[in-house]
Design a protein that fits this description.
With about 270 residues, the protein is of the alpha/beta class. It has 8 helices and 9 strands. Strand 4, helix 5 and strand 5 form a beta-alpha-beta unit. Helix 1 crosses helix 2 and helix 7 packs across helix 8. It comes from Hevea brasiliensis.
């Protein structure tokens, strides 16, 4: 079983285009932030078909996938050891930083699973919000600690090496931020992901997901995702999307294929 999580750089993907018309935009449903979204019907077409879209990955991604295919238990550690980390953005996620600066993030305890180098952890940590950065890779955790040790808010966060799926912290969280963790795990593990999210989050806590990559490529990681993929595993556990919107602050190369979802538990479960 893989415990995977990481950031996928915009330059990880060389091109996403319609072979018949390279300038045709990929269609998206846009929902205003804060708007109550309609239930996403799995039968509705959410992205182009596999025949319409071509996704080409850089050689580094193909090398990474080969490592993971040959070593499912220690593959991510090997990627870090070899410096093969095309997912590492090298800076905080822009929309997360925006939410922090505008006071739109919950206070209290927060978790960033698959924190990698820890940029998001450090960016949103403050006296009102204590952040735990979790990663399966010891090398990643050591790098995160080295990069962040001299920051003035260093007492507002910590990094832990642990398997997200078997980790049992002493306290529950007010906020969990997931960006590309969901798309990095094998699709058959998504139900386990949702159960662990539920078990780690306070009853009134919030899950924020950046839903990426919304396309129809084959294989992974990163594996293709859709809003319905999240609903399929979160709704039966009582979660409801309180807002869904295109991520207008997505980095170059991801705009039009990334959405932000904010989820909370509802007193009435949705049905798919």
């Amino acid at each position: 079983m893989r415990s995977l999580s990481f950031r996928w750089l915009s330059n990880t993907i060389l091109s996403v285009q319609n072979p018949a018309s390279a300038n045709r935009a990929i269609p998206f449903r846009g929902l205003g932030v804060g708007a109550a979204p309609p239930r996403m019907d799995k039968k509705r077409e959410e992205q182009p078909s596999a025949r319409e879209i071509t996704v080409k990955f850089k050689p580094e991604v193909n090398q990474m996938q080969r490592i993971l295919d040959t070593d499912s238990s220690g593959g991510w550690e090997k990627c870090w050891e070899q410096g093969l980390t095309p997912w590492d953005l090298g800076q905080p996620t822009p929309v997360l930083l925006h939410l922090h600066h505008t006071g739109a993030l919950p206070k209290g305890n927060a978790l960033v699973p698959g924190c990698g180098s820890g940029h998001d952890v450090v960016a949103i940590a403050c006296p009102e919000r204590y952040i735990v950065g979790l990663d399966i890779s010891e090398k990643a955790i050591k790098k995160a600690e080295e990069l962040s040790s001299s920051f003035p808010n260093a007492n507002c966060f910590k990094f832990l090496r642990a398997d997200f799926f078997s980790w049992h912290p002493p306290e529950l969280f007010d906020l969990i931020f997931d960006y590309t963790f969901f798309c990095a795990i094998e699709p058959e593990m998504r139900s386990q992901w949702a159960v662990q999210i539920r078990d780690l989050l306070k009853p009134d806590g919030e899950l924020i997901t950046l839903i990426f990559p919304i396309d129809d490529h084959i294989g992974g990681p990163p594996y293709k995702v859709s809003v319905s993929d999240y609903e399929e595993v979160l709704c039966p556990l009582g979660f409801k999307a309180v807002s869904l919107a295109d991520n207008e602050m997505a980095i170059k190369g991801r705009k039009g294929r990334e959405m932000i979802g904010r989820w909370k538990r509802s007193s009435t479960q949705c049905s798919l």
